[in-house]
């Protein structure tokens, strides 16, 4: 398994260009199941999860080409309705095919997505919505079988603004004649990027003053030409990399307003932030001030930036509380940071951090995508040679991570121990 060898203690300086968002590209690629027409999607990041999604589309009857960041999807065979476990287990977001398959075939058979390192991650909100739309849900040998004689418009109030459930149910409603009304949907930028993509296919989706989303189902959807929005989590990760290494980084091709609360907290931590239409520049503080955070649905602090923020707070001058209120087990990076000299105590869903003057290099192990990125940031800050193992987690969500960090002055190399 690949690992990163990092010689830390260097200030990162320079400019980094942000690519398309993984968490927008995945549902938008899956939305192509809603049509037999050709779809062309630009700014798709080269990531493991994208490759998995392409395999899923091919397994369901699509032909997919992926060159220079552009995915072209066309019909290969009639749409299939069964998705095998070996694909679903690689990526929870595979479950998002349920909505389009149910809408088009009134039938979907998908392996129940397992939990993953960051928690059980059920799909009960998705299933409750599908039942309200008229589907029968049967659990059969680890597969969820969704079937419907007829799907009917209804009102769906999500018990929690789940990003995936919002996207799954919205895609399903696009082909259900009549008006389906959604309340308490997720408002992450990736959700609105999907809505824009669906509207470009001819879906009728609007939002009223109260923030309710109304979907008026149509008979058929056209193909799409869409460019994926910038990855706000990558943006945040690079800004925190600038802060934790005492450097100065300009992040380009991003959407500053998608990271509003992070920019506010980075300034509270002492960083100097300047922004333009599609760029953000950070000048690291001399002394990092402690800033408590609680993760929350958008526009609250992104749970996907909790781990990088925790890494930063290990070097703050004072005590910080980082509260993970979205997932029940998203602190696997904490013990690894402690092995690098951090002082962190986990109490239920709160990480209590006492800032230390410096981190020390060590060999640490990634357990999940964002935790792995946090360990890289910590290793970049720690003077000396560190090794971050199980880089495959990081490859799920950070395109050309080591190349981009190297261009900012980092000493980081990818090794596969087998090859050494
Ligand atoms: C999406 O996951 C993202 N993944 C996650 O990013 C992100 O952390 C998460 O949204 C929250 O922002 C993709 O977009 C592919 P949720 P999703 O449904 O949709 C509970 C990354 O690092 N829940 O909003 O799975 C769930 O257990 C990944 O890029 C239910 O209880 O997240 C969790 O505690 C990690 N029942 C909370 O809601 C359900 O039916 C948020 O989950 C669905 C979710």
Could you walk me through the main structural features you see in this protein, from its secondary elements to its overall organization?
The model has no long low-confidence stretch (mean pLDDT 96). Helices cover 30% and strands 26% of the residues. The protein has helices at 22-31, 48-59, 85-88, 98-105, 124-132, 163-173, 189-200, 232-244, 260-268, 306-313, 333-339, 369-381, 392-395, 401-407, and strands at residues 3-8, 13-17, 39-42, 62-67, 70-75, 82-83, 107-111, 136-140, 143-147, 155-157, 178-183, 204-207, 213-217, 225-227, 248-252, 272-275, 279-283, 293-294, 319-323, 343-347, 350-354, 363-365, 384-389, 411-415. The protein is of the alpha/beta class. The chain folds into two domains: 3-19 and 230-415, UDP-n-acetylglucosamine1-carboxyvinyl-transferase, Chain (Alpha-beta prism); 22-227, Enolpyruvate transferase domain (UDP-n-acetylglucosamine1-carboxyvinyl-transferase, Chain), CATH 3.65.10. The strands form six sheets. Strands 22-23-1-24 form a four-stranded mixed β-sheet. The protein contains 14 helices and 24 strands. Helix 8 packs parallel to helix 10 (306-313), helix 10 packs parallel to helix 12 and helix 11 (333-339) runs parallel beside helix 12. The chain is globular and about 65 Å long.
């Amino acid at each position: 398994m690949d690992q990163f060898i990092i010689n830390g203690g260097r200030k990162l300086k320079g400019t980094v260009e942000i690519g398309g968002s993984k968490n927008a590209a995945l549902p938008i690629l899956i939305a192509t199941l809603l049509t037999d027409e050709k779809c062309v999607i630009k700014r798709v990041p080269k990531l493991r999860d994208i490759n998995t999604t392409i395999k899923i589309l091919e397994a369901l009857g699509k032909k997919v080409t992926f060159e220079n960041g552009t995915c072209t999807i066309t019909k290969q065979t009639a749409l299939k309705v069964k998705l095998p476990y070996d694909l679903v287990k690689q990526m929870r977001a595979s479950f998002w095919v349920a909505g389009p398959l149910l809408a088009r075939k009134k039938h979907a058979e998908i392996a129940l997505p397992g939990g993953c390192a960051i928690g059980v991650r059920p799909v009960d909100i998705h299933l409750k919505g599908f039942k309200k739309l008229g589907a029968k849900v049967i659990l059969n040998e680890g597969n969820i079988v969704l079937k419907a004689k007829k799907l009917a418009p209804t009102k769906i109030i999500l018990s929690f603004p789940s990003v995936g459930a919002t996207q799954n149910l919205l895609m399903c409603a696009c082909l259900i004649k009549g008006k389906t009304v959604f309340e308490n949907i997720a408002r992450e930028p990736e959700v609105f990027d999907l809505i824009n993509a669906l509207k470009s296919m001819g879906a009728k989706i609007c939002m009223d003053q109260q923030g309710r989303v109304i979907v008026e189902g149509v008979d058929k959807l056209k193909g799409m030409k869409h460019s994926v929005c910038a990855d706000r989590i990558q943006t945040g990760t690079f800004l925190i990399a600038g802060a934790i290494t005492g450097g100065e980084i300009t992040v380009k091709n991003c959407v500053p307003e998608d990271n509003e609360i992070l920019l506010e907290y980075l300034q509270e931590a002492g960083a100097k932030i300047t922004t333009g239409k599609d760029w953000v520049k950070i000048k690291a503080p001399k002394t990092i001030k402690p800033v408590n955070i609680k993760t929350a649905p958008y526009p609250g602090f992104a749970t996907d930036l909790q781990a990088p923020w925790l890494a930063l707070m290990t070097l703050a001058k004072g005590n910080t509380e980082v509260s993970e209120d979205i997932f029940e087990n998203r602190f696997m990076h904490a013990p690894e940071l402690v092995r690098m000299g951090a002082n962190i105590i986990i109490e239920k869903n709160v990480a209590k951090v006492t800032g230390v003057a410096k981190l020390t290099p060590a060999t640490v192990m990634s357990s999940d995508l964002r935790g792995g990125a946090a360990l890289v940031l910590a290793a970049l800050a720690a003077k000396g040679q560190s090794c971050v193992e199980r880089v495959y987690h990081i490859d799920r969500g950070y395109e050309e991570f080591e190349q981009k960090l190297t261009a900012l002055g980092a000493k980081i190399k990818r090794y596969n121990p087998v090859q050494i």
